From TrEMBL:
<dbReference type="GO" id="GO:0071555">
    <property type="term" value="P:cell wall organization"/>
</dbReference>
<dbReference type="GO" id="GO:0009245">
    <property type="term" value="P:lipid A biosynthetic process"/>
</dbReference>
<feature type="region of interest" description="N-acetyltransferase">
    <location>
        <begin position="253"/>
        <end position="453"/>
    </location>
</feature>
<comment type="pathway">
    <text>Bacterial outer membrane biogenesis; LPS lipid A biosynthesis.</text>
</comment>
<feature type="binding site">
    <location>
        <position position="77"/>
    </location>
    <ligand>
        <name>UDP-N-acetyl-alpha-D-glucosamine</name>
    </ligand>
</feature>
<keyword id="KW-0012">Acyltransferase</keyword>
<dbReference type="InterPro" id="IPR018357">
    <property type="entry name" value="Hexapep_transf_CS"/>
</dbReference>
<keyword id="KW-0548">Nucleotidyltransferase</keyword>
<dbReference type="GO" id="GO:0008360">
    <property type="term" value="P:regulation of cell shape"/>
</dbReference>
<keyword id="KW-0961">Cell wall biogenesis/degradation</keyword>
<feature type="binding site">
    <location>
        <position position="229"/>
    </location>
    <ligand>
        <name>Mg(2+)</name>
    </ligand>
</feature>
<feature type="binding site">
    <location>
        <position position="365"/>
    </location>
    <ligand>
        <name>acetyl-CoA</name>
    </ligand>
</feature>
<feature type="binding site">
    <location>
        <begin position="82"/>
        <end position="83"/>
    </location>
    <ligand>
        <name>UDP-N-acetyl-alpha-D-glucosamine</name>
    </ligand>
</feature>
<dbReference type="InterPro" id="IPR005882">
    <property type="entry name" value="Bifunctional_GlmU"/>
</dbReference>
<feature type="binding site">
    <location>
        <position position="157"/>
    </location>
    <ligand>
        <name>UDP-N-acetyl-alpha-D-glucosamine</name>
    </ligand>
</feature>
<dbReference type="InterPro" id="IPR025877">
    <property type="entry name" value="MobA-like_NTP_Trfase"/>
</dbReference>
<dbReference type="GO" id="GO:0003977">
    <property type="term" value="F:UDP-N-acetylglucosamine diphosphorylase activity"/>
</dbReference>
Amino acid sequence: MSRSCLAVILAAGDSTRMKSSMSKVLHPVANRPMIAHVMAAVASAGMTDAALVVGRDAEKVAKAGSLEGISVKSFLQTERLGTGHAVLAAREAIAEGFDDVLVAYGDVPLITAAPFAAAREKLAEGADVVVIGFHTDKPFGYGRLLVENGELVAIREEKDATDEERKVTWCNSGLMAINGKKALALLDKIGNSNAKGEYYLTDLVEIARAEGGKVVAVDAPETELTGCNNRAELAVIEKLWQERRRHELMVSGVSMIAPETVFLSFDTEIGQDALIEPNVVFGPGVTIDGGAVIHAFSHIEGAHVSAGATVGPFARLRPGADLAEGSKVGNFCEVKNGKIGEGAKVNHLTYIGDAVVGAHANIGAGTITCNYDGVNKHQTVIGANSFVGSNSSLVAPVSIGDGAYVASGSVITENVPADALALGRARQEVKPERAKLIRERALAIKAARKPAK
């Protein structure tokens, strides 16, 4: 679409019902602020200019609403005098003369590009105002869209509607598109002659029609227009987002055994033929390649898992974890800023931090890379085809050469050459009959502590 468009995003509310120390639009859905979801939809609809109307936490909201590829200008709304007044806070941007002006809200994070595109298409066909509506089987409380001969003649609020009008199930979402060449003229005619003394954006319908303009409505899925006013509604939005994204992944070829127990982030990418078992949580920045297996009860954030690799069950991958093809990180293991080479195995009860594990290396149970000296982090390098025995501590900075062996229970503080065997533990001693003496002494102490009867 070659027409220019300005998206005006209203995000200045006080969020009192949210009962929060921060603005409502900063609350995350899928680990991303609500306002950022809206801006992403704006970007995907091909719009390159946005006016962000801010109030509470203005700087934080502006930062969260910044998105690469969109020129975003922020405008402070110092008074809350209705939606019409809020849009006019961006007067300077609207006056630049865009073909289309689209008005959306910062607390509708499920919105996609499709409703925006549909509204702009109607503007291109000659409409002056386009209202985005939704059909619902529970219309109570919403303004009804009253349409005659294909044109929107009024938005009737619940309290003002007749019994017949209340039967209408097409409702107003609050989102709207306006002919950019007429936008300021129309907006300036909104009055505040109502009980609250506020300026309502919905008055544009009557104003535009009175001017001889054309007003129409387009439809959008009800879920996409779900707004958020409190924590309960936030949880519903999170649920809806997760359901939508899981479905997208599964129809693209990802297997989920119990999808309702898998939680994704806004940027989670999972390839075809990957298998996700129950109760897996993906934090931001995760890429799972096709054919990988994520076993149950794993938590993954900021990590990359290559094709054929397996994770878990009960594993944690932290930022910087990078698993090569065919590698394995098993149960009760944690990897942070660690590269696990092709075919390498970190099977159980192990911590790999700030480390490189070579191809086909085997890391025994209970192994720890001791990467932190209390001030700085240090790297451990474990060579290809090496073997680290169970319950070993590798004190960084240290390297284990290719093909080297580390004996179980060792504390390794010096580099181990390739193909060498390293032992870092006390020599075993056996003292015959000593266990019997220790046991007798312990029993005597216990008996002495018993109170006399």
